[in-house]
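Hey, resending since the last one bounced:
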Amino acid sequence: MKKTIAACIAAAFAVNNVSTAIAEEVFMAPLVEQSVLLDIDADQFVVIVGERGHVLISENGDVFEQKRVPTQSTLTATTVVGDNIWAVGHDAVIIHSSDKGESWEVQQYQPDLQRPFLDVLFFDEMQGVAAGAYGLFYRTEDGGKTWNAERHATLLDPYDREYLEDIRKEDEAFYQQELESILPHINRITLDGNTLYLAGEAGLLAKSTDMGKSWERYSVDYTGSFFDIKPLDDDSVLAVGLRGNMFINHNESSWEYIQTCSTSTLNSILIGSGSVVYALGNNGKMVKANRPIPTSMRDPYANPVDCKPGEGISVSQIEDKAAILNAKQFKGLNLAVSANGVKTLNLK
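The structure tokens again:
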């Protein structure tokens, strides 16, 4: 697949927008552990973020403390590197702490963009990326002191790229305008070794071997949104999304459908112990799959009543049926964030 800098990165420019109109400091909520929480990350400690700028820290996975942060914007994603924490969210906000959440700075705040960040990932303490709605993609190489905005045309499907290239021959300014308007939402970025994986709307699955500077889009027989993508081993990659859709790719071959007989949207993938994988989603649904995961022919019109899950696949539901947004393993616990707050999942 041929790539050029012009095709992969349609535009890049340095920005460091921290508005003087940043919202007031976060409200310290007495029931914050039961609020809408949207993402979790863990290393030597756990960080959880959610609505209204909520940030929770725990050293043991049991007792959580809300931290004072300089924003009330909903935080959708977080990442931890050493003692450093970055969190991103609505109003194109990026906040950073270098001391495990004790003090914070705002690195980005651009409400006029009207585009939220939906994920953030750092490769080390200096280099990281943040991505979100309508192809929003920013990069930093100095720990977030400055961020560069990029537009990646190779995330579009081939028909849209062809349409844009025809426009570009006539009008570069209109090309840039159209590119910005039709880029798909980027929902999740996952790093595995030297490979970066990306999941988004309109059937978007892609990979990069140069830290996201260029992308190769996968071809998938599905046009709905994907919300997570993770490699299971050296040979297979799993992706989950809307209406319970799960697909797996073996050895860079075509993506194959996994039949679960559940139509609840799947938001995240948790790799369990041994050969077990869990897909977590709305309505508190948890899809358990034993590897090797069986595949089947995809029939979008199949009657759910007659559906039979593949061998080794089972579906369960947590008691309160709250949407599960993400989960991490930490000190023997399976910690999850949900529409009803922090949960410890009992995975069997």
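Residues 1-15 have pLDDT under 50 and may be disordered.

Sorry for the duplicate.
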